[in-house]
Amino acid sequence: MLKVNNINVFYGNIQALKGVSLEVIEGEIVTLIGANGAGKSTLLKTLSGLLKPKSGTIEYLGEPISGKAPQSIVKTGISHVPEGRRVFSNMSVEENLELGAYTRKDAGGVRKDMEKVYELFPRLLERRKQLSGTLSGGEQQMLAMGRAIMAKPKLLLLDEPSMGLAPLMVKQIFNIIEQINKDGTTVLLVEQNANMALSIANRAYVIETGRIEISGTAAELQASEEIKKAYLGGL
Ligand code: ATP
Fold first, then answer.
1. Is the CB of 46 under 6 A from ligand 1?
2. Each residue of 187-224: pLDDT tens digit?
3. Does the C-beta of 45 come closer than 6 Å to ligand 1?
4. Is 34 near ligand 1, meaning CB less than 6 Å away?
5. How far are the Cα atoms of 61, 86, 116, 128 from residue 98, in angstroms, in the given order?
6. What is the CATH code for 2-77+154-231?
7. Ligand 1: which residue has its CA nearest to atom 28?
8. Does the Cβ of 192 fall within 6 Å of ligand 1?
9. How do residues 80-115 score in pLDDT, each as one tens digit?
10. Which residues form the signal peptide (predicted)?
């Protein structure tokens, strides 16, 4: 579904991604784990068109997408939930969800997906008239995910959905990611919480200072001594 081939991405003179290649197959949950500053967010921003690679290619559903504008990438079915769950704080929950569907013309489908989002996140239904800026951190994360679902993505890019959330909320969010995947959306999940990410992923990549250093099935990575020491807090 998605093939990233040898991309190099710079911020001015600083090279944030160094020859990164990875693949996501339709139906999978793939996770990208790595420490602070490793380049995880940079990769997602590049996939959604916010950054342009200096070299290398990105192919999505058989078509090259590197260099395309973010709006046209959204239309191809890629939806990005950025780190820090940016919601429009002076708009209501429901208005934020409606905005997520702004590229769609199928009003009936949009209404159905709104119901689906409220089913996945009953908390958002309770608070649908509330101003988004007054939601708790976890609720804002739900809203950011809900808004992305409203775009009806084929591929969902999630940037650290667990950040700053209490353990119970993290569990809930990960259950919902699995649910969204079962309903037919492919997921590329960036996480520092490697334990949780590997527990729901099919495959994983580890990125260190801009380079993919390790890749394998989630089970292989969970069993690896190197990964346990560096990322799973184990001995
Ligand atoms: P974190 O988990 O801390 O969010 P990350 O893996 O997502 O980290 P990135 O945000 O992709 O890391 O950053 C990769 C590198 O690029 C870092 O060294 C960072 O300082 C640098 N970087 C990110 N954004 C910019 C920018 N706008 N200008 C210059 N350098 C940047």
1. no
2. 999 998 898 999 999 999 999 999 999 999 999 999 98
3. no
4. yes
5. 27, 15, 13, 11
6. 3.40.50.300
7. 11
8. yes
9. 999 877 889 999 999 999 999 988 889 999 999 999
10. none
